[in-house]
Design brief:
The chain is an alpha/beta fold. It has 20 helices and 25 strands. It has 3 domains: 256 residues, Aconitase, domain 3, CATH 3.30.499.10; 122 residues, 2-Layer Sandwich (Aconitase, domain 3); 150 residues, Alpha-Beta Barrel (Aconitase, domain 4), CATH 3.20.19.10. The chain is globular.
Protein backbone atom coordinates (compact mmCIF):
# COMPACT_ATOMS: atom_id res chain seq x y z
CA UNK A 1 0.00 0.00 0.00
CA UNK A 2 1.35 3.40 -0.99
CA UNK A 3 1.63 6.47 1.21
CA UNK A 4 -0.15 9.80 1.25
CA UNK A 5 1.74 13.07 1.53
CA UNK A 6 1.26 13.38 5.28
CA UNK A 7 2.33 9.78 5.82
CA UNK A 8 5.52 10.35 3.83
CA UNK A 9 6.46 13.56 5.64
CA UNK A 10 5.78 12.19 9.12
CA UNK A 11 7.42 8.88 8.28
CA UNK A 12 10.58 10.66 7.15
CA UNK A 13 10.70 12.46 10.52
CA UNK A 14 9.98 9.48 12.73
CA UNK A 15 11.71 6.24 13.63
CA UNK A 16 8.60 4.20 12.85
CA UNK A 17 6.13 3.94 9.95
CA UNK A 18 3.42 6.57 9.75
CA UNK A 19 0.17 4.62 9.98
CA UNK A 20 -3.12 6.55 10.31
CA UNK A 21 -4.38 6.40 13.86
CA UNK A 22 -0.99 5.47 15.33
CA UNK A 23 0.91 7.84 17.61
CA UNK A 24 4.52 8.55 16.68
CA UNK A 25 7.25 10.93 17.80
CA UNK A 26 7.87 13.46 15.03
CA UNK A 27 11.15 15.36 14.70
CA UNK A 28 10.46 19.05 14.08
CA UNK A 29 12.70 20.98 11.69
CA UNK A 30 11.58 24.47 12.76
CA UNK A 31 9.98 25.32 16.13
CA UNK A 32 8.39 28.72 16.55
CA UNK A 33 6.46 30.67 19.17
CA UNK A 34 4.59 33.91 18.70
CA UNK A 35 4.29 36.95 20.93
CA UNK A 36 1.06 35.96 22.70
CA UNK A 37 2.13 32.36 23.32
CA UNK A 38 5.88 32.83 23.56
CA UNK A 39 5.93 34.07 27.14
CA UNK A 40 3.97 31.00 28.24
CA UNK A 41 6.43 28.75 26.40
CA UNK A 42 9.27 30.41 28.31
CA UNK A 43 7.36 30.04 31.56
CA UNK A 44 6.77 26.34 30.89
CA UNK A 45 10.43 25.68 30.10
CA UNK A 46 11.66 27.50 33.16
CA UNK A 47 9.14 25.85 35.44
CA UNK A 48 10.10 22.38 34.20
CA UNK A 49 13.84 23.19 34.19
CA UNK A 50 14.15 22.24 30.52
CA UNK A 51 16.81 23.52 28.09
CA UNK A 52 16.37 24.44 24.42
CA UNK A 53 17.54 21.44 22.39
CA UNK A 54 18.67 23.30 19.28
CA UNK A 55 18.45 27.14 19.31
CA UNK A 56 19.36 27.24 15.61
CA UNK A 57 16.05 25.54 14.78
CA UNK A 58 14.05 27.64 17.24
CA UNK A 59 12.55 31.09 16.75
CA UNK A 60 10.27 33.71 18.28
CA UNK A 61 8.06 35.68 15.88
CA UNK A 62 6.24 38.83 16.96
CA UNK A 63 3.35 39.02 14.54
CA UNK A 64 0.15 39.33 16.57
CA UNK A 65 0.84 42.79 17.93
CA UNK A 66 3.80 44.43 16.17
CA UNK A 67 4.70 47.48 18.19
CA UNK A 68 3.45 46.09 21.50
CA UNK A 69 0.50 48.52 21.54
CA UNK A 70 -1.03 46.51 24.38
CA UNK A 71 0.85 46.36 27.70
CA UNK A 72 0.29 42.63 28.01
CA UNK A 73 1.82 42.00 24.60
CA UNK A 74 4.66 44.41 25.29
CA UNK A 75 5.50 42.55 28.51
CA UNK A 76 5.32 39.15 26.82
CA UNK A 77 7.52 40.29 23.95
CA UNK A 78 10.16 41.49 26.37
CA UNK A 79 10.10 38.15 28.21
CA UNK A 80 10.79 36.46 24.88
CA UNK A 81 13.57 38.91 23.96
CA UNK A 82 15.30 38.28 27.27
CA UNK A 83 15.01 34.52 26.85
CA UNK A 84 16.38 34.74 23.30
CA UNK A 85 19.44 36.63 24.54
CA UNK A 86 20.02 34.06 27.28
CA UNK A 87 19.66 30.96 25.08
CA UNK A 88 20.61 31.98 21.54
CA UNK A 89 17.10 31.30 20.24
CA UNK A 90 16.45 33.26 17.06
CA UNK A 91 14.20 36.32 17.25
CA UNK A 92 12.17 37.91 14.48
CA UNK A 93 11.15 41.10 16.23
CA UNK A 94 8.23 43.46 15.68
CA UNK A 95 9.48 44.69 12.30
CA UNK A 96 9.48 41.31 10.52
CA UNK A 97 5.87 40.17 10.06
CA UNK A 98 3.90 36.93 10.19
CA UNK A 99 5.99 33.98 11.37
CA UNK A 100 4.50 31.39 9.03
CA UNK A 101 5.10 33.64 6.02
CA UNK A 102 8.64 34.36 7.14
CA UNK A 103 9.29 30.62 7.36
CA UNK A 104 8.24 30.15 3.73
CA UNK A 105 9.60 33.46 2.43
CA UNK A 106 13.06 32.89 3.92
CA UNK A 107 13.18 29.21 2.98
CA UNK A 108 13.25 27.94 6.57
CA UNK A 109 10.78 25.29 5.44
CA UNK A 110 10.12 23.69 2.09
CA UNK A 111 8.68 20.49 0.62
CA UNK A 112 8.89 17.67 3.14
CA UNK A 113 9.77 19.89 6.13
CA UNK A 114 8.11 19.91 9.54
CA UNK A 115 7.15 23.08 11.43
CA UNK A 116 5.25 23.86 14.63
CA UNK A 117 4.16 27.17 16.10
CA UNK A 118 1.72 28.64 18.59
CA UNK A 119 -0.20 29.75 15.50
CA UNK A 120 -3.31 27.72 14.63
CA UNK A 121 -2.62 28.52 10.97
CA UNK A 122 0.83 26.95 10.99
CA UNK A 123 -0.73 24.39 8.65
CA UNK A 124 -0.28 27.07 5.99
CA UNK A 125 2.93 25.11 5.27
CA UNK A 126 0.83 22.68 3.28
CA UNK A 127 1.03 25.29 0.51
CA UNK A 128 4.60 24.15 -0.22
CA UNK A 129 4.12 20.47 0.60
CA UNK A 130 5.41 20.77 4.16
CA UNK A 131 3.86 19.71 7.47
CA UNK A 132 2.89 22.58 9.74
CA UNK A 133 0.88 22.43 12.90
CA UNK A 134 -0.38 24.95 15.40
CA UNK A 135 0.07 23.78 18.96
CA UNK A 136 -0.41 25.01 22.49
CA UNK A 137 2.20 26.37 24.84
CA UNK A 138 3.10 23.04 26.46
CA UNK A 139 3.46 21.30 23.10
CA UNK A 140 5.77 24.01 21.82
CA UNK A 141 7.80 23.96 25.02
CA UNK A 142 8.25 20.20 24.62
CA UNK A 143 9.31 20.66 20.98
CA UNK A 144 11.84 23.31 21.99
CA UNK A 145 13.22 21.09 24.73
CA UNK A 146 13.28 17.76 22.91
CA UNK A 147 13.18 18.62 19.20
CA UNK A 148 10.17 16.38 18.68
CA UNK A 149 6.54 15.96 19.70
CA UNK A 150 4.10 13.09 19.81
CA UNK A 151 1.56 13.16 17.04
CA UNK A 152 -1.35 10.99 15.96
CA UNK A 153 -0.99 10.27 12.26
CA UNK A 154 -4.18 11.59 10.66
CA UNK A 155 -6.20 9.88 7.97
CA UNK A 156 -6.05 11.53 4.56
CA UNK A 157 -8.81 12.81 2.31
CA UNK A 158 -8.41 13.68 -1.36
CA UNK A 159 -10.15 16.90 -2.45
CA UNK A 160 -10.49 17.38 -6.20
CA UNK A 161 -11.40 20.81 -7.57
CA UNK A 162 -13.31 20.27 -10.81
CA UNK A 163 -13.98 22.78 -13.52
CA UNK A 164 -12.58 26.20 -14.26
CA UNK A 165 -13.58 29.25 -12.20
CA UNK A 166 -14.63 32.48 -13.86
CA UNK A 167 -11.91 35.04 -14.67
CA UNK A 168 -13.15 37.19 -11.76
CA UNK A 169 -12.66 34.45 -9.14
CA UNK A 170 -9.49 34.29 -7.05
CA UNK A 171 -7.87 31.71 -4.79
CA UNK A 172 -9.81 33.22 -1.86
CA UNK A 173 -13.06 32.60 -3.69
CA UNK A 174 -12.01 29.00 -4.31
CA UNK A 175 -11.29 28.33 -0.64
CA UNK A 176 -14.53 30.02 0.42
CA UNK A 177 -16.37 27.70 -1.98
CA UNK A 178 -14.56 24.77 -0.39
CA UNK A 179 -15.62 25.94 3.08
CA UNK A 180 -19.19 26.26 1.90
CA UNK A 181 -19.33 22.63 0.76
CA UNK A 182 -17.18 21.07 3.46
CA UNK A 183 -18.48 23.08 6.41
CA UNK A 184 -16.70 23.79 9.69
CA UNK A 185 -15.90 20.13 10.31
CA UNK A 186 -15.88 18.51 6.87
CA UNK A 187 -12.14 17.78 7.14
CA UNK A 188 -12.09 17.33 10.91
CA UNK A 189 -8.96 15.57 12.10
CA UNK A 190 -7.79 14.78 8.57
CA UNK A 191 -4.99 15.75 6.24
CA UNK A 192 -6.48 16.86 2.94
CA UNK A 193 -4.60 16.73 -0.37
CA UNK A 194 -5.80 19.23 -2.96
CA UNK A 195 -5.92 18.24 -6.63
CA UNK A 196 -7.60 19.36 -9.84
CA UNK A 197 -6.87 20.98 -13.19
CA UNK A 198 -6.76 24.44 -11.63
CA UNK A 199 -4.15 23.48 -9.02
CA UNK A 200 -1.09 23.48 -11.27
CA UNK A 201 -1.87 27.09 -12.22
CA UNK A 202 -1.85 28.21 -8.59
CA UNK A 203 1.33 29.99 -7.54
CA UNK A 204 2.72 29.97 -3.99
CA UNK A 205 0.61 32.94 -2.76
CA UNK A 206 -2.56 31.31 -4.13
CA UNK A 207 -1.69 28.02 -2.41
CA UNK A 208 -0.98 29.90 0.80
CA UNK A 209 -4.43 31.50 0.66
CA UNK A 210 -6.14 28.13 0.28
CA UNK A 211 -3.96 26.23 2.76
CA UNK A 212 -4.43 28.94 5.40
CA UNK A 213 -8.14 28.16 5.73
CA UNK A 214 -7.83 24.42 6.31
CA UNK A 215 -8.24 25.13 10.03
CA UNK A 216 -11.65 26.66 9.34
CA UNK A 217 -12.77 23.30 7.91
CA UNK A 218 -11.39 21.28 10.81
CA UNK A 219 -8.37 19.99 8.88
CA UNK A 220 -5.07 19.07 10.45
CA UNK A 221 -3.57 20.42 7.24
CA UNK A 222 -4.38 20.93 3.54
CA UNK A 223 -1.45 19.84 1.39
CA UNK A 224 -0.50 20.68 -2.17
CA UNK A 225 1.92 18.55 -4.16
CA UNK A 226 4.74 20.98 -5.02
CA UNK A 227 5.22 21.46 -8.75
CA UNK A 228 8.46 22.67 -10.33
CA UNK A 229 7.55 26.34 -9.83
CA UNK A 230 6.99 25.79 -6.11
CA UNK A 231 10.19 23.77 -5.79
CA UNK A 232 12.16 26.52 -7.51
CA UNK A 233 10.60 29.17 -5.25
CA UNK A 234 11.58 27.24 -2.10
CA UNK A 235 15.08 26.44 -3.34
CA UNK A 236 15.71 30.07 -4.20
CA UNK A 237 14.25 31.32 -0.90
CA UNK A 238 16.20 28.91 1.27
CA UNK A 239 19.39 28.61 -0.69
CA UNK A 240 19.11 24.86 -0.34
CA UNK A 241 17.81 21.92 -2.30
CA UNK A 242 14.33 20.62 -1.54
CA UNK A 243 13.50 17.29 -3.11
CA UNK A 244 10.15 16.72 -4.83
CA UNK A 245 7.53 14.95 -2.76
CA UNK A 246 4.22 13.44 -3.85
CA UNK A 247 1.71 10.88 -2.70
CA UNK A 248 2.02 7.40 -4.16
CA UNK A 249 -0.44 6.45 -6.87
CA UNK A 250 -1.81 3.64 -4.70
CA UNK A 251 -2.07 5.74 -1.54
CA UNK A 252 -5.20 5.09 0.53
CA UNK A 253 -7.70 7.86 1.32
CA UNK A 254 -10.66 7.62 3.66
CA UNK A 255 -12.70 9.76 1.27
CA UNK A 256 -12.45 11.46 -2.10
CA UNK A 257 -14.42 14.69 -2.36
CA UNK A 258 -15.12 16.59 -5.57
CA UNK A 259 -15.84 20.30 -5.37
CA UNK A 260 -17.28 21.94 -8.46
CA UNK A 261 -15.74 25.36 -9.05
CA UNK A 262 -16.70 25.61 -12.72
CA UNK A 263 -17.74 29.19 -13.45
CA UNK A 264 -17.16 30.16 -9.81
CA UNK A 265 -17.81 33.84 -9.16
CA UNK A 266 -16.58 36.06 -6.30
CA UNK A 267 -17.79 34.74 -2.95
CA UNK A 268 -18.26 36.11 0.57
CA UNK A 269 -18.68 34.50 3.98
CA UNK A 270 -21.40 36.06 6.09
CA UNK A 271 -20.68 37.20 9.67
CA UNK A 272 -19.99 34.62 12.33
CA UNK A 273 -19.18 31.58 10.21
CA UNK A 274 -16.40 31.17 7.61
CA UNK A 275 -18.42 28.36 6.04
CA UNK A 276 -21.61 30.45 5.58
CA UNK A 277 -20.67 31.42 2.04
CA UNK A 278 -22.74 32.97 -0.73
CA UNK A 279 -21.91 34.75 -3.99
CA UNK A 280 -21.10 38.42 -3.48
CA UNK A 281 -23.99 39.18 -5.82
CA UNK A 282 -26.45 37.87 -3.18
CA UNK A 283 -25.39 40.44 -0.57
CA UNK A 284 -24.25 43.26 -2.87
CA UNK A 285 -25.35 46.64 -1.60
CA UNK A 286 -24.90 45.84 2.10
CA UNK A 287 -23.60 49.01 3.74
CA UNK A 288 -20.16 48.74 5.37
CA UNK A 289 -18.11 50.88 7.72
CA UNK A 290 -14.63 49.48 7.29
CA UNK A 291 -12.50 47.20 5.13
CA UNK A 292 -9.44 45.22 6.13
CA UNK A 293 -6.91 43.77 3.66
CA UNK A 294 -4.19 41.58 5.14
CA UNK A 295 -3.74 38.53 7.43
CA UNK A 296 -1.85 35.31 6.76
CA UNK A 297 -4.52 34.49 4.16
CA UNK A 298 -4.29 37.62 2.00
CA UNK A 299 -1.45 39.92 2.97
CA UNK A 300 0.94 39.01 0.17
CA UNK A 301 2.44 41.38 -2.40
CA UNK A 302 0.08 40.00 -5.06
CA UNK A 303 -2.90 40.90 -2.84
CA UNK A 304 -1.67 44.47 -2.44
CA UNK A 305 -1.16 44.72 -6.19
CA UNK A 306 -4.75 43.62 -6.74
CA UNK A 307 -6.07 46.19 -4.30
CA UNK A 308 -3.90 48.98 -5.70
CA UNK A 309 -5.02 48.16 -9.24
CA UNK A 310 -8.66 48.66 -8.28
CA UNK A 311 -8.07 51.73 -6.09
CA UNK A 312 -5.59 53.57 -8.34
CA UNK A 313 -6.71 57.14 -9.00
CA UNK A 314 -9.81 56.77 -6.83
CA UNK A 315 -10.80 57.49 -3.23
CA UNK A 316 -12.35 55.28 -0.59
CA UNK A 317 -16.05 56.04 -0.10
CA UNK A 318 -16.85 58.73 2.48
CA UNK A 319 -17.28 57.28 5.96
CA UNK A 320 -15.41 54.05 5.15
CA UNK A 321 -12.10 53.19 6.82
CA UNK A 322 -9.66 51.06 4.81
CA UNK A 323 -6.92 49.31 6.78
CA UNK A 324 -4.13 47.38 5.07
CA UNK A 325 -1.48 45.23 6.72
CA UNK A 326 1.27 43.58 4.62
CA UNK A 327 2.19 40.08 5.78
CA UNK A 328 5.95 40.64 6.07
CA UNK A 329 8.58 43.36 5.98
CA UNK A 330 9.76 42.11 2.57
CA UNK A 331 6.22 42.51 1.23
CA UNK A 332 6.03 46.03 2.74
CA UNK A 333 9.35 47.02 1.15
CA UNK A 334 8.43 45.55 -2.24
CA UNK A 335 5.07 47.37 -2.16
CA UNK A 336 6.89 50.60 -1.34
CA UNK A 337 9.41 50.08 -4.16
CA UNK A 338 6.63 49.39 -6.69
CA UNK A 339 4.68 52.49 -5.71
CA UNK A 340 1.79 50.44 -4.33
CA UNK A 341 2.03 52.05 -0.92
CA UNK A 342 1.65 55.54 -2.41
CA UNK A 343 -1.30 54.42 -4.52
CA UNK A 344 -3.06 52.94 -1.50
CA UNK A 345 -2.35 55.95 0.70
CA UNK A 346 -3.61 58.31 -2.03
CA UNK A 347 -6.83 56.28 -2.08
CA UNK A 348 -7.27 56.89 1.64
CA UNK A 349 -5.88 53.69 3.16
CA UNK A 350 -4.16 53.33 6.51
CA UNK A 351 -1.19 50.97 6.16
CA UNK A 352 0.06 49.25 9.29
CA UNK A 353 3.22 47.44 10.34
CA UNK A 354 3.79 44.02 8.81
CA UNK A 355 1.98 41.40 10.85
CA UNK A 356 -1.34 39.69 11.44
CA UNK A 357 -3.51 42.78 11.72
CA UNK A 358 -6.83 42.41 13.51
CA UNK A 359 -7.13 38.67 13.98
CA UNK A 360 -5.67 38.35 17.48
CA UNK A 361 -6.53 41.74 18.96
CA UNK A 362 -3.61 43.10 16.97
CA UNK A 363 -2.53 46.65 16.34
CA UNK A 364 -4.97 47.30 13.49
CA UNK A 365 -8.15 45.81 12.11
CA UNK A 366 -10.46 45.56 15.13
CA UNK A 367 -14.00 46.89 14.76
CA UNK A 368 -16.42 48.29 17.31
CA UNK A 369 -20.05 47.57 18.25
CA UNK A 370 -22.34 48.21 15.30
CA UNK A 371 -19.47 48.33 12.81
CA UNK A 372 -19.68 46.26 9.63
CA UNK A 373 -16.34 45.14 8.19
CA UNK A 374 -15.35 43.30 5.04
CA UNK A 375 -12.09 41.47 5.64
CA UNK A 376 -9.65 39.40 3.62
CA UNK A 377 -8.88 37.34 6.75
CA UNK A 378 -9.68 33.71 7.42
CA UNK A 379 -11.99 33.96 10.42
CA UNK A 380 -15.08 35.96 11.21
CA UNK A 381 -16.16 34.29 14.44
CA UNK A 382 -18.25 36.56 16.65
CA UNK A 383 -15.80 38.76 18.53
CA UNK A 384 -12.76 37.56 16.63
CA UNK A 385 -11.97 40.86 14.96
CA UNK A 386 -13.86 43.12 17.32
CA UNK A 387 -17.47 43.54 18.40
CA UNK A 388 -19.02 44.27 15.02
CA UNK A 389 -19.91 42.10 12.04
CA UNK A 390 -17.24 40.71 9.72
CA UNK A 391 -17.69 39.43 6.18
CA UNK A 392 -14.82 37.47 4.58
CA UNK A 393 -13.90 38.12 0.97
CA UNK A 394 -11.01 38.38 -1.48
CA UNK A 395 -8.75 41.46 -1.65
CA UNK A 396 -10.46 42.36 -4.94
CA UNK A 397 -13.89 42.35 -3.34
CA UNK A 398 -12.51 44.22 -0.34
CA UNK A 399 -11.06 46.97 -2.51
CA UNK A 400 -14.23 47.32 -4.57
CA UNK A 401 -16.29 47.48 -1.37
CA UNK A 402 -14.05 50.19 0.07
CA UNK A 403 -14.63 52.29 -3.05
CA UNK A 404 -18.38 51.86 -3.00
CA UNK A 405 -19.18 51.87 0.70
CA UNK A 406 -21.26 48.75 0.12
CA UNK A 407 -20.42 45.15 -0.64
CA UNK A 408 -19.51 45.01 -4.32
CA UNK A 409 -17.68 42.90 -6.88
CA UNK A 410 -14.57 44.31 -8.50
CA UNK A 411 -16.02 43.75 -11.97
CA UNK A 412 -19.32 45.41 -11.21
CA UNK A 413 -18.60 48.49 -9.13
CA UNK A 414 -21.80 50.49 -8.63
CA UNK A 415 -22.06 54.12 -7.66
CA UNK A 416 -21.41 54.81 -3.97
CA UNK A 417 -24.52 54.19 -1.90
CA UNK A 418 -25.66 56.23 1.11
CA UNK A 419 -24.72 54.47 4.29
CA UNK A 420 -27.23 53.20 6.85
CA UNK A 421 -26.46 52.39 10.45
CA UNK A 422 -26.00 48.62 10.94
CA UNK A 423 -26.68 46.78 14.15
CA UNK A 424 -24.50 44.45 16.14
CA UNK A 425 -24.53 42.53 19.39
CA UNK A 426 -22.19 43.16 22.31
CA UNK A 427 -20.84 40.32 24.39
CA UNK A 428 -20.40 40.53 28.16
CA UNK A 429 -17.48 39.52 30.36
CA UNK A 430 -17.81 36.59 32.72
CA UNK A 431 -17.56 36.74 36.54
CA UNK A 432 -14.87 35.05 38.58
CA UNK A 433 -14.97 31.46 39.84
CA UNK A 434 -12.88 29.04 41.86
CA UNK A 435 -9.74 27.12 40.94
CA UNK A 436 -9.03 23.53 39.95
CA UNK A 437 -9.46 20.27 41.92
CA UNK A 438 -8.39 16.63 41.88
CA UNK A 439 -7.69 14.31 38.95
CA UNK A 440 -8.83 10.74 39.78
CA UNK A 441 -9.28 8.17 36.99
CA UNK A 442 -12.91 7.67 37.98
CA UNK A 443 -14.57 11.06 38.00
CA UNK A 444 -17.77 11.96 39.80
CA UNK A 445 -19.41 15.31 39.32
CA UNK A 446 -22.23 17.40 37.96
CA UNK A 447 -22.65 17.84 34.21
CA UNK A 448 -23.16 20.98 32.19
CA UNK A 449 -24.82 20.24 28.85
CA UNK A 450 -23.64 22.81 26.31
CA UNK A 451 -25.76 21.71 23.38
CA UNK A 452 -23.90 23.54 20.62
CA UNK A 453 -21.81 22.51 17.62
CA UNK A 454 -18.57 24.11 16.41
CA UNK A 455 -17.86 26.03 19.61
CA UNK A 456 -14.70 27.90 18.67
CA UNK A 457 -11.88 29.08 20.90
CA UNK A 458 -13.04 32.69 20.75
CA UNK A 459 -16.34 31.60 22.25
CA UNK A 460 -14.47 29.65 24.94
CA UNK A 461 -11.80 32.26 25.71
CA UNK A 462 -11.97 35.52 23.81
CA UNK A 463 -8.88 36.90 22.12
CA UNK A 464 -9.04 40.15 24.10
CA UNK A 465 -7.79 38.14 27.10
CA UNK A 466 -4.84 36.47 25.35
CA UNK A 467 -2.24 38.49 27.23
CA UNK A 468 -3.24 36.76 30.49
CA UNK A 469 -0.52 34.31 31.53
CA UNK A 470 -1.67 33.43 35.06
CA UNK A 471 -3.93 30.34 34.85
CA UNK A 472 -5.70 31.40 38.04
CA UNK A 473 -7.11 34.43 36.18
CA UNK A 474 -8.32 32.52 33.14
CA UNK A 475 -11.37 30.79 34.62
CA UNK A 476 -13.38 34.00 34.94
CA UNK A 477 -13.42 34.31 31.15
CA UNK A 478 -14.54 30.73 30.26
CA UNK A 479 -17.42 30.77 27.75
CA UNK A 480 -17.46 34.55 28.06
CA UNK A 481 -18.21 34.89 24.33
CA UNK A 482 -20.69 32.01 24.02
CA UNK A 483 -24.24 33.43 24.02
CA UNK A 484 -26.29 32.06 26.89
CA UNK A 485 -23.24 30.76 28.76
CA UNK A 486 -21.55 33.97 29.85
CA UNK A 487 -22.45 33.17 33.47
CA UNK A 488 -20.78 29.75 33.38
CA UNK A 489 -17.87 30.72 35.67
CA UNK A 490 -20.35 31.90 38.31
CA UNK A 491 -22.32 28.67 38.47
CA UNK A 492 -19.73 25.94 37.79
CA UNK A 493 -18.20 24.15 40.77
CA UNK A 494 -14.91 22.25 41.15
CA UNK A 495 -15.48 18.64 40.08
CA UNK A 496 -18.04 19.47 37.39
CA UNK A 497 -17.84 18.08 33.83
CA UNK A 498 -18.71 19.77 30.54
CA UNK A 499 -20.63 17.85 27.84
CA UNK A 500 -20.92 19.36 24.39
CA UNK A 501 -21.28 18.73 20.64
CA UNK A 502 -19.04 18.26 17.63
CA UNK A 503 -15.84 20.10 16.71
CA UNK A 504 -15.45 21.61 20.17
CA UNK A 505 -12.49 23.98 20.38
CA UNK A 506 -12.16 24.63 16.67
CA UNK A 507 -10.20 27.71 15.70
CA UNK A 508 -7.17 29.09 17.50
CA UNK A 509 -4.26 27.28 19.16
CA UNK A 510 -4.63 29.28 22.39
CA UNK A 511 -3.85 27.22 25.49
CA UNK A 512 -6.05 29.50 27.60
CA UNK A 513 -9.16 27.90 26.08
CA UNK A 514 -8.15 24.74 27.97
CA UNK A 515 -6.61 26.26 31.05
CA UNK A 516 -9.71 28.33 31.80
CA UNK A 517 -11.61 25.09 32.55
CA UNK A 518 -8.80 23.70 34.69
CA UNK A 519 -8.79 27.00 36.58
CA UNK A 520 -12.46 26.50 37.42
CA UNK A 521 -11.91 22.93 38.60
CA UNK A 522 -13.67 21.28 35.64
CA UNK A 523 -12.41 17.70 35.71
CA UNK A 524 -13.22 16.53 32.16
CA UNK A 525 -14.76 17.43 28.84
CA UNK A 526 -16.91 15.06 26.78
CA UNK A 527 -17.68 16.14 23.21
CA UNK A 528 -18.79 14.37 20.05
CA UNK A 529 -15.47 15.51 18.54
CA UNK A 530 -12.78 18.14 19.04
CA UNK A 531 -10.74 20.58 17.04
CA UNK A 532 -7.39 18.85 16.54
CA UNK A 533 -5.22 21.48 18.24
CA UNK A 534 -7.63 21.88 21.12
CA UNK A 535 -7.63 18.14 21.81
CA UNK A 536 -3.83 18.10 21.96
CA UNK A 537 -3.74 21.13 24.23
CA UNK A 538 -6.16 19.55 26.67
CA UNK A 539 -4.33 16.22 26.71
CA UNK A 540 -0.98 17.94 27.27
CA UNK A 541 -2.43 20.05 30.09
CA UNK A 542 -3.70 16.93 31.83
CA UNK A 543 -7.37 17.82 31.32
CA UNK A 544 -9.26 14.66 30.23
CA UNK A 545 -11.08 15.06 26.92
CA UNK A 546 -13.15 12.08 25.84
CA UNK A 547 -15.14 11.56 22.66
CA UNK A 548 -18.77 10.50 22.96
CA UNK A 549 -22.34 11.66 22.51
CA UNK A 550 -23.64 12.27 26.02
CA UNK A 551 -25.96 14.97 24.69
CA UNK A 552 -28.12 12.12 23.37
CA UNK A 553 -28.41 10.62 26.86
CA UNK A 554 -31.27 11.56 29.14
CA UNK A 555 -29.24 13.89 31.32
CA UNK A 556 -30.04 17.24 32.86
CA UNK A 557 -27.83 20.15 33.84
CA UNK A 558 -26.55 19.66 37.36
CA UNK A 559 -27.13 15.89 37.35
CA UNK A 560 -24.31 13.84 38.86
CA UNK A 561 -22.54 11.24 36.73
CA UNK A 562 -19.60 8.89 37.13
CA UNK A 563 -17.04 8.65 34.31
CA UNK A 564 -14.29 6.05 34.11
CA UNK A 565 -11.44 7.42 32.00
CA UNK A 566 -9.87 4.00 31.44
CA UNK A 567 -12.99 2.15 30.28
CA UNK A 568 -15.17 4.98 28.99
CA UNK A 569 -18.09 3.75 31.08
CA UNK A 570 -20.52 6.44 32.23
CA UNK A 571 -23.12 5.89 34.96
CA UNK A 572 -25.84 8.04 36.43
CA UNK A 573 -28.93 7.46 38.51
CA UNK A 574 -31.21 5.43 36.26
CA UNK A 575 -28.91 4.95 33.30
CA UNK A 576 -25.51 4.49 31.76
CA UNK A 577 -23.55 4.23 28.52
CA UNK A 578 -20.04 3.76 27.18
CA UNK A 579 -17.99 6.32 25.27
CA UNK A 580 -14.48 6.20 23.82
CA UNK A 581 -12.01 5.84 26.71
CA UNK A 582 -8.88 7.92 27.09
CA UNK A 583 -5.94 6.72 25.00
CA UNK A 584 -2.82 5.27 26.56
CA UNK A 585 -0.88 8.47 25.79
CA UNK A 586 -3.62 10.65 27.28
CA UNK A 587 -3.71 8.59 30.47
CA UNK A 588 0.07 8.66 30.83
CA UNK A 589 0.18 12.45 30.46
CA UNK A 590 -2.85 12.84 32.74
CA UNK A 591 -1.38 10.67 35.50
CA UNK A 592 1.86 12.62 35.64
CA UNK A 593 0.04 15.94 35.72
CA UNK A 594 0.74 17.23 32.22
CA UNK A 595 3.17 16.89 29.33
CA UNK A 596 5.97 18.81 31.01
CA UNK A 597 5.55 17.40 34.53
CA UNK A 598 7.72 14.66 36.02
Amino acid sequence: MGQTLIEKIIGQHSDQPAVPGEIVDVAIDVRAARDFGGANVVQNLRKAGLPVADPARTVFTFDCNPGGSDQGYAANQQICRTFARETGVALRDIDQGIGTHIAIEDGLVGPGSTFVSTDSHANIMGAVGAFGQGMGDQDIAAAWAHGKVWFKVPPSKKVILTGKPSPTATAKDIVLAMASQLGASGLLGCAAEIYGDVVDDLDVPDRVTIASMGTEMGAIIMLFTPNEKVLEFCRRAGGQDFAPIAADLDAAYVETIEIDIDGLEPMVARPGHPEDVVPVSEVAGRSVDSVFIGSCTNGRLEDLRTAAGILAGKRVAPGVVLKIVPSTRKVWEAALAEGLVQTLIDAGALIGNAGCGGCAAGQIGQNGPGEVTVSSGNRNFAGKQGKGEVYLASPATCAATALCGVLARADDIPEPVAKTAPTATVDTAAPTAAAAGDKPTVLKGRVWLVNEENIDTDMIFHNRHLAITDPAEMGQHAFGNLPGWEDFPAKVQPGDLVVTGSNFGCGSSRQQAVDCFSSLGVTALVARSYGAIYERNAINAGLPVLAGDLLAAELENGQEIELDLETGKVHWDGGGTTITPASKVQLEIYRRGGLLAG
